User: Fold Xcc1710-like domain-containing protein from Rhodoferax saidenbachensis.
Amino acid sequence: MKLQPDAIQGPSITGYGPGWIAVNGEQFHASLVVSSMGQRLDWNVRTFEDLQASHFDALAELGAELVLFGSGDRIRFPQPQWLQTLYARRIGLETMDTQAACRTYNFLAGEGRKVVAALLL
Assistant:
C-alpha cells in the first residue's frame, strides 16, 4: 500500500499569504499563472477590474483541461463573454478565491491532471 502522495511533476504552490504566492519556494508579489505542464508565467493583471477577454484567451493556449481562476481574497466571477475561447476549446473553468485555487491546483496537479491556475493577488 502506497502511503505517500505522488509528487507534482510541474511547479507546485508551496505557500501563500496576503499579497504573495510561493511557487517551488520562490515568492511572487504579482498575479501569476502556474501550469502543471511546467509553465510559470506573469499574468499582467493587477486587479479584477483590469480583466479582459484577452487574459482568458491567453490561458486557452496553455493546453490545460481545466483552468482554476483565483479571483483574489473573495470569489468574483468573470464575465461570460470573457470565457468564449475557453468554452470553444472545451476547457473547463472553476472560479474560487486565490487561496482555495492554490490548494486545489496542488491537489489536481498531484493527480497528474493538466491544470492551470490563474491567480490574482
Remarks:
- The beta strands are 13-17, 20-23, 26-28, 32-35, 40-42, 66-70, 92-96, 115-119.
- The radius of gyration is 14 Å.
- The CA atoms of residues 56 and 83 lie 6 Å apart.
- The longest strand covers residues 13-17.
